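## tool: complex_structure
## caller: assistant
## args:
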Amino acid sequence: MSRVFTFMALIWGLAGQAGPVQAQTQGFSGLARIDAAASRITDTEDGGALIAFSLSQGVPYRLFTLNDPARLVLDFQEVDWRGLTSEDLLQGEQITRAQFGTYVPGWSRMVLALAQPMAVRGAALDIDVVTARADLRLDLTPVSAEVFAAHAGAPTDPRWDLPAAEVLPPVPKRSPDAPLLVVLDPGHGGIDPGAEVMSDTGAVIEKDLILGFAIELGEVLVRSGRFQVQLTRDGDYFVSLERRIALAHRAGADLFVSLHADALSEGLAHGATVHVLSREASDVASAKLAERHDRSDLLAGVDLSDSDDRVTGVLLDLARQETQPRSDALARALVDGMANQGGPMNRRSLRSAGFSVLKAADIPSVLIEIGFLSSPRDLQNLQDPQWRAQMARGILNGLVNWREEDTALRALVRQ
Ligand SMILES: [Zn+2]
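## result:
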């Protein structure tokens, strides 16, 4: 391959000027595809790693490292990863895991788990002038934990990050009969697929299934005339747990309902389950679910270093003292609503754990596992549009009943 166009994006050397460099952006268009057969990550002789990607064309990219655990994050605008598997890609020992997919619309991300602290010694994107094919090579070399920590951190980019803190105008008071605003939160998305299982008709992926259900449920709620609906994501892209809550606040949500259909090996995981936030998990399976959701954020390359305690402190909030009973009542009403539609419900359909996505202090929040992809019976149900319509109806009924109860209770409190 003749290469006439070469540029280096030397990000930070061993001596280390911190901070990522935005790669050159002009002259690229369209969607780049990865050539899986020609893309490899191998170990180097000095104990580091060499990342070699072959792309159908050049794309702007950026990279940065994150600590706890040590990760290298590569963002591309935009790469089609089809055909690539982490098993084929990872040929060495220094990169232990690769996760890749859509991050935000228009941007793709790969997150590499590092076996030890490493810094990017060199980065080069070579583009063939005739074929337009591009070779990206990144040279990683071991560094001390201190050096790594000093340079780790996500760059600030307003296109991707949480909306900056600002004083929002108060949401105008609505009349008591106005529709409630329900924020529906389809779990996972983009680089974070959630549960994946094989069925008779092929692979079933939680992020896709649950987005479809959220849209169906949203239509049922809106058609009832009792609710307005906003989704935390309406496509296959990643939204951090933190951002899901921020979106609900920004929208002035009355209610927050996170939707999932995870796979669980622990215990008897079948049937619908409704979770609320608590400091102590009601059971081991729920604790593991909550942990796994936080871990999905880590694997997707979210920088959690600033949010050192995402749940426990919030539990003490005064606002939560009022919200928690409302969340509990909401969870009970939803369990009843779905049970009355035939469920099937889990034997312990009401559970709790430290789910980060439920931590909004002032919005009643629940997380529904409408079924478990790991259960053959649930898997069949989840793929059945008629069953999903029944569950959506059950959730609507639960919300309607909760609203009446909640309105009456709050009128009593005010007297
Ligand atoms: Zn899930």
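## assistant note: The pocket of zinc ion is lined by residues 187-188, 194, 206, 260, 262 (CB under 6 Å). The chain has a mean pLDDT of 84. Handing back to user.
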